[in-house]
Specification:
Layout lengths: L1 E12 L2 H27 L8 H12 L21 H34 L26 E2 L5 E7 L4 E8 L9 E2 L3 E5 L2 E12 L5 H5 L5 E7 L4 E9 L4 E8 L1 H22 L7 H31 L4 E5 L11 H27 L3 E5 L16 E3 L16 E3 L6 E3 H21 L22 H4 L5 H11 L9 H4 L16
Parallel strand pairs: 8-11, 11-12
Antiparallel strand pairs: 1-4, 1-7, 2-3, 3-4, 5-7, 6-7, 8-9, 9-10, 13-14, 14-15
Helix pairs in contact: 1-3, 2-3, 5-6, 5-7, 6-7
The structure holds zinc ion (ZN).
Zinc ion (ZN) binds next to loops.
Length: about 500
Amino acid sequence: MAKATKTITQAMQYPSRYAAWFTTTQALFNTVASFYFEVITAHEQVLLLSSHKALHALETLTHATEENPDPVMPLDAIAPQVPALFRRAAIHAALGSAHAFETSLQKWRARKEKAALKKKRFTEHPPVPPRTWNRSPTFYKGQWKGRTASSILLKLWTGASWIWVNVRLLSRDLPDGYEPGSPSLVRHGSHWRLHTPVEKTFTSPGKVAVQLAHAQTRICAIDLNLDHHLAVCTIQTADGSTVATTFLSGGKRVNGRRKWLLGRIARNRRKTGILAENEPDNLALWEKIRHVDEQVAHLISARIVHFARQHQASVLVFEHLGKLKPQKGRYSRRGNSKRAFWMKGRIFTNAKYKAWNEGMITSRVNPRNTSRECARCHGLIVRYHAKQGPEPEGYTPGAPLAWCPACGMKGHADRNASLVIGQRLRTRVHHQEKPRAPLLGPGERDEKSSGVVRSQDANSKGGPSRRRARRHGTGKGHGTAHEDHARMVAPSAIPRPLPLFSEL
Ligand SMILES: [Zn+2]
């Protein structure tokens, strides 16, 4: 079984006096959580226990019961009358922070030892435990009740006592088919919102190779661009026929808007004569730029997934991002192309998790020459503008039309690239079916990847992925192979480009 999780944010309507109670509840939650962080620091062996046993151990240390009348560090001394479920939520928050802190401390020690071995100077400061606590209070069942689509009862700390209050929930309802988890109260500026994690389980969709073994399987191949058509998607069947195409535009508008905003920042900087990064005016402009990118990445990725679902595709395939080609020119032009490139990465990451929530998997292929290769005969194409006439020559980067001198294919260049991307996935899966000789030298072979090249996609969980990906990349073969289902639920923020690619 596979799992998909997401968080639903709901705005709330409440009398203004509740806001003060939300604040006192949050303050108490953080007091209790930081107290437990101290307890864990004093009893580090707790971190070796399972989460259930750690909870029990911490309660024995702090909570008085009949069998345990004198706990070592009583919670009551800090905060009296804390309900059991509120305490447990705070303990879990503290355990989470303590584990994270422990991990970063271990990593720091490892780096320090490594530097000492190489006799290098090591100046990095060790990580410090959290000085202040600003966690959002989580409400375990028992701290909330009576949830409907439009309201929920929450148990709040007023500073003197615990009371139940009823708040109205606005905006979106919880989605069908998802199981809600424990909600938390999150402050957004002067407003408070309710965040609810939701989870659904579904039958695991199966690996790319398994899915493509059926001729009826449909894949959605996506060519992402920096300019006018941000994404061009084609639906292809596993046996190679093309079913549908869509062009998702908007790139020109985004680029224009972003470039204009960057230009204003540049002018402000010129005026002040210094890099006024924190000028209130520039802060607002940067915020706008981020907002534009974020919104477009969400919109385009949602439309990609919608299109794929509409045509019953079960696999999305992109090309690896490749490298950012630095642009020459003014600040606004350079900055703009960099941000357009980042946005491309964000469209991919968003599409990947949105597709997973719909039960689709995502794969990536080698990007080499996808826009120069003819989808029909694999010869090199000519890219041209319509004004260049019917028999154009050469390759004009970014031109919309494609013509193949070898087979006479004519069409849209981005659509051609999208077809090539789909073909690469099929070719790769087809190649993988044959038994292969070891890719790496003797003794170098990775057990897990026997016969299959693992890429950064599958490897990025651990540290050495980049080096291994490069080694594989130069060895032979393909950009991506395995898909790691567990990881797809929470894809990493920005996919790293694979440093070297070799031809298929
Ligand atoms: Zn051709």
